[in-house]
Write a structure and sequence with these properties.
This protein is mainly alpha-helical and 79 residues long. Helices cover 71% and strands 5% of the residues. It is built from three helices and two strands. It has a two-stranded antiparallel ribbon with strand order 1-2.
Length: 79
């Protein structure tokens, strides 16, 4: 699974790098959330309307890094 996770991460980085406007940023945000959802598992915890997911440390690290890259790209596009 780690190989697939890394390949999906590289594709997510490419999606972020290809963003040219705010609509692309929002699409990349959805892509990142789907990336997380695909490689995490649903928790049995009940938080009302919120979906709780369980993820290993590598996935959390990659997910956070993708959001950092997306934030940087959004700042770059707004300049």
């Amino acid at each position: 699974m780690e190989y697939h996770l890394r390949a999906a991460y590289r594709k997510a980085v490419k999606v972020i790098e290809s963003c040219k406007n705010q609509e692309h940023i929002e699409a990349a945000r959805r892509y990142i959330n789907n990336f997380f959802k695909l490689y995490s598992t649903e928790s049995r915890s009940d938080w009302g309307n919120f979906q709780v997911r369980v993820a290993d440390d590598l996935l959390v690290k990659k997910y956070n890094k993708l959001y950092e890259k997306l934030d940087d790209k959004q700042v770059f596009l707004s300049e």
